[in-house]
């Protein structure tokens, strides 16, 4: 008898290159020194929360109120949800109330309470390749079946392929824009057409098909772009997001699920999300963080810093002959691997102390991901190493 479940034993046997490589990068640093190893593996924000966060933190800590650390409604504090409803209303002109919002333990917690609420075992959830690898586990947690649909060469939506893959068993589609790992944003036109497709398929199968937009990077966008609201185009939809990236608070586990105000069975869904927050043991999002973010909905971490690093790396890599789609948002680049086998390439890159993640971790072999949420020094120091690598590969 094994001490842990068969399923988790199998999960553990599948390699996650990201963690392994992150640790390899740290090991190399202990040998070669901090400034001679370029560890681009992990997506941990390299910036600090905005000054307004620390001001709120001080204000709240200096003015404790009775009960401020107690349980509250599973959905979270009313004033926090009111503040979010207000911002959503301003963004897309729909009539959000606090009961369209449930506070969650980050976007990961939000996706889990949502998938637990909506999924029956055997129902399919479509994800777009390449995708955030934990979607696999999140869908599997509730007996859902992951269905992978490829995107176009520029990582944009392939609506024909999506249409072919929607079946009577499709319960939801998860999109992630700006995207981890590619950095692409889906334009308004694509979201509108996706909405039309979903409506047609709902009619065809006489079913509800939810669009779930996982948006933790929605404020990390460059070049004056904005992320179009899915709520304007899709009624049976949810936005799941967090302040892990936009306020640089990933360790604090604070985010939310917002449902479209006109979604079918809104009250029932709200009750389901509340119950699942309890049932999964989250109970509620952290109380202190909810209070903090109430007044920070219009704040964001330093985007300019990310922009500088994106430009530096993108310009250098393309000048060396790397094939890479310019990321419109996030802090990731997803270039094509210059060797057909991405694992072979990442091992080759390690010889130059460049530590990157193979595309296979995102179900897209033949590519690799770099996270530029590292320091500007790391980016600058890495440039000659990339040049040498490209020369040796005769790119
Ligand atoms: N979704 C995507 C696409 C992500 O990249 C991440 C984290 O990196 C998450 C969800 C989880 O975010 P959180 O830390 O808010 O749970």
Automatic annotation (TrEMBL):
ATP-binding among keywords: no
Pfam families named in the record: Aminotran_1_2 (PF00155)
Domain of life: Bacteria
Keywords: Aminotransferase, Transferase
GO function terms (MF aspect): pyridoxal phosphate binding; transaminase activity
InterPro entries in alphabetical order: Aminotransferase_I/II_large, PyrdxlP-dep_Trfase, PyrdxlP-dep_Trfase_major, PyrdxlP-dep_Trfase_small
Domain Aminotransferase class I/classII large intervals: 36-378
Descriptive protein name: Aspartate aminotransferase
